[in-house]
């Protein structure tokens, strides 16, 4: 049996593996965490280096973590992990990780600490929280989190009476994209995205860096699509890894993506290359939309985008030739210029013209497993409401706005916010304008940080609670909406080396000190997990052996019998949005030229690398060795003009006078001369991050300006310009 047919066999039969007793045979003998033993054992779990949550198998040799591989049963990893995932071993052995609970010894930001017991640390946190509750109400505590691990801490804070919960991933990353698609289709692309890349005949990437922003399943599917002859079109100011696989590369002027999208749609409509039957059946307001597109010719777009009319026409025709299996990727990090929801809506509309939503090679319809929740007591109710979006100023925000909570903390309106609990989030890097974040922190009565590493935000905390890594703990069950429905288990592969504790334990003990014991009727997370699985008809013991339970295959496309459902006011795909019009916004996306680049400067663009996740992994010794610092991409002609070459170190200075650390130059033809590019997450200033301390430069520190999306409150960050200061 070859590799591919074997993997398919494993997927199909995974749901029956438990009954057949095959789990340990496939994955090797299973070790219980905390029980060192001679020889080699394996434990299935799932990754937490990024949000994708790929199924993994940890191998322990003679009681020590040896390696991580993909779980062949898992539909997300498909038996393979990305560089970050395989490097996850480094999170366990990281010498810079937090080891003991800490209480601030001096003023905030000086990183002076007293090592204390867990009882002291949680007692201090509970006492401060009770004081805040007595003086301001429980709503004055807010929580910032990232990832599944925050679930139990959210549960504790909801039991306490808190209502303000946010993840920067909405307002600083995917929010405009999600809202733009919701306004069009009544649903968003999801997370993981419902992109059917494997079956796409034409893939269009607009500033989406597959292969660099390493989302495992998508990258594997991208490789298969390219091997199968998929026609790839990439529009990007930078010649990315994905662009190197493209049939057509469009070196677009930064900030003009919406102009290109309008011109593409003009060609599709004018030449009747769109899916007429699909649009007629499912579309609303198409006539007004088609009339609106009339002036946006490729000739109109040429001076805006810098792209020739012939290239715009040819790429539009290429999309039309392969519809409906043409996928215009929705992207993820979509907060660019402040009009990002409308740009993302244009991406959705282009997909609608091509008939790709709900179709093979476009966007499949995901499914998930049904699994009951735990029967907790009801949470307290609040009459105050949330602080992040008072008066629905941003009317289409369906999640909390992180910078909105920061604003309320700074102003005290609509009511004071006096305590922050952060989980797995480095806010000084995640939010724009570090000075505003630090000013907000200074006004707090409590900043409690739960993290694995001593981040910059932890350096400003009152109390630091060291969490066990994902390889050392249980978390809540992962029940994703995905192509194949499944349940995944994260469980300990090895014990934590010091006094680190799992988030569920921290949450439960904090609840006890707050007098909220009734919200934790279970004593250990295994009781919680076993209850939920038993109620769903599944075996916890068998899931521990395989790590994955697959559900029955569901129809994925309209052609397979999935009923088209569009949760919009018209119950159709909205080419013309009456709900936008009713709120005073353009019902069809309107292009606004970007701010011009000031003389002598470059627009600062940022992104990811396949080696690191945000600012979380730079001290991981394995990943650090692969990529110890970032570089600034600078057009080769500009570099020659400035008298610098690759490997030279320079400083960047932004429009507000903020100067970066020294950073290496990457002089290259692969970027336009009007912009520079940096990988996010470097230039750490926390003294506890010894391995990563001042390695490379921080793009976050240079992002002092941002423009707020009026539809949903996202922060466009590509508003910053830098000059290059050559050092002697």
Tell me, what is the CATH class of the largest domain?
Answer: Alpha Beta
Q: Which overall shape is indicated by the principal axes computed on the Cα atoms?
A: globular
What fraction of residues sit in β-strands? 15-25%
Main-sheet strand order equals 5-4-15-14-13-6-7
Structural class by secondary-structure content:
alpha/beta
| Overall pLDDT metric | 94
Helix count equals 24
Give the total of beta strands: 26
* Alpha-carbon Rg, integer: 25 Å
What do we call the CATH homologous superfamily of the largest domain? Dimethylsulfoxide Reductase, domain 2
Q: Helix content range of the residues, please?
A: 25-40%
Number of domains: 4
CATH topology of the largest domain: Dimethylsulfoxide Reductase, domain 2
Write the CATH architecture name of the largest domain: 3-Layer(aba) Sandwich
Model regions low in confidence, pLDDT < 50 over at least 5 residues: 1-34
End-to-end Cα distance = 62 Å
The major β-sheet equals: 7 strands, mixed
């Amino acid at each position: 049996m070859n590799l591919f047919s074997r993997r398919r066999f494993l997927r199909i039969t995974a749901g029956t593996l438990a009954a057949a007793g095959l789990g340990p045979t496939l994955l090797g003998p299973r070790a219980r965490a905390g029980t060192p033993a001679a020889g080699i054992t394996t434990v299935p779990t799932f990754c937490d280096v990024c949000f994708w949550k790929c199924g993994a198998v940890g191998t322990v040799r003679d009681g020590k973590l040896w390696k991580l591989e993909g779980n062949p049963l898992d539909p997300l990893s498909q038996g393979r992990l990305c560089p970050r995932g395989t490097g996850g071993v480094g999170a366990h052995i990281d010498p810079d990780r937090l080891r003991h609970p800490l209480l601030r010894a001096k003023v905030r930001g000086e990183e002076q600490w007293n090592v204390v017991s867990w009882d002291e640390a949680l007692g201090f946190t509970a006492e401060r929280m009770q004081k805040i509750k007595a003086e301001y109400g429980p709503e004055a505590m807010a929580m910032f989190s990232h990832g599944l691990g925050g679930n139990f801490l959210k549960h504790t804070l909801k039991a306490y009476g808190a209502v303000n919960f946010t993840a920067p991933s909405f307002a600083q990353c995917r929010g405009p994209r999600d809202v733009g698609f919701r306004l069009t289709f009544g649903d968003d692309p999801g997370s993981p995205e419902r992109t059917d890349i494997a079956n796409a005949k034409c893939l269009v990437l607009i500033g989406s860096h597959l292969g660099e922003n390493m989302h495992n399943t998508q990258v594997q599917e991208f490789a298969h699509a390219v091997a199968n002859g998929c026609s790839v079109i990439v529009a990007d100011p930078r010649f990315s890894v994905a662009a190197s696989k493209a049939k057509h590369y469009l070196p677009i002027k930064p900030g003009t993506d919406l102009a290109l999208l309008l011109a593409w749609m003009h060609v599709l409509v004018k030449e009747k290359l769109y899916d007429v039957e699909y649009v007629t059946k499912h579309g609303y307001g198409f006539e007004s939309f088609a009339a609106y597109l009339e002036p946006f010719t490729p000739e109109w777009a040429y001076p805006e985008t810098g792209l020739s009319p012939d290239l715009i026409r040819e790429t539009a025709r290429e999309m039309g030739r392969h519809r409906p299996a043409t996928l215009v990727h929705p992207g993820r990090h979509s907060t660019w210029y402040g009009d990002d929801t409308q740009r993302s809506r244009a991406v959705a509309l282009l997909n609608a013209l091509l008939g790709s939503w709900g179709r093979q090679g476009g966007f499949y319809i995901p499914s998930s497993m049904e699994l009951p929740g735990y029967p907790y007591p009801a949470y307290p109710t609040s009459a105050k409401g949330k602080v992040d979006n008072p008066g629905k100023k941003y009317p289409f925000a369906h999640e909390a706005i992180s910078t909105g909570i920061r604003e309320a903390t700074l102003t005290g309106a609509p009511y004071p916010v006096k305590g922050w609990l952060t989980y797995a989030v480095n806010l000084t890097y995640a939010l724009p304008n570090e000075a505003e974040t630090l000013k907000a922190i200074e006004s707090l009565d409590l900043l409690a940080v739960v993290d694995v590493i001593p981040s910059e935000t932890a350096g400003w905390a009152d109390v630091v609670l060291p969490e066990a890594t994902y390889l050392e703990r249980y978390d809540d069950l992962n029940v994703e909406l995905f192509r194949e429905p499944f349940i995944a288990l994260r469980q300990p592969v090895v014990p934590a080396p010091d006094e680190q504790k799992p988030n569920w334990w921290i949450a439960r003990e904090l609840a006890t000190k707050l007098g909220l014991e009734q919200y934790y009727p279970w004593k250990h997370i295994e009781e919680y997990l076993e209850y939920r699985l038993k109620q769903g008809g599944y075996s916890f013991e068998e899931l521990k052996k395989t790590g994955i339970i697959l559900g029955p295959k569901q129809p994925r496309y309209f052609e397979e019998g999935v009923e088209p459902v569009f949760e919009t006011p018209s119950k159709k795909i909205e080419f013309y949005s009456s709900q936008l019009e009713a709120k005073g916004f353009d019902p069809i996306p309107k292009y606004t030229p970007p701010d011009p680049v000031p003389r002598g400067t470059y627009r600062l663009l940022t992104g990811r690398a396949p080696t690191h996740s945000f600012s979380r992994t730079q001290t991981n010794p394995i990943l650090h060795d692969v990529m110890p610092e970032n570089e600034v991409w600078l057009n080769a002609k500009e570099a020659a003009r400035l008298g610098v070459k690759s490997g030279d170190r320079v400083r960047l200075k932004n429009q507000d006078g903020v100067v970066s650390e020294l950073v290496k130059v990457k002089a290259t033809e692969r970027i336009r001369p009007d912009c520079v590019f940096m990988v996010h997450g470097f230039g750490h200033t926390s003294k506890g991050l010894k391995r990563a301390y001042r390695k490379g430069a921080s793009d976050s520190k240079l992002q002092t300006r941002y423009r707020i999306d009026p539809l949903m409150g996202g922060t466009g960050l590509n508003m910053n310009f830098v000059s290059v200061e050559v050092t002697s």
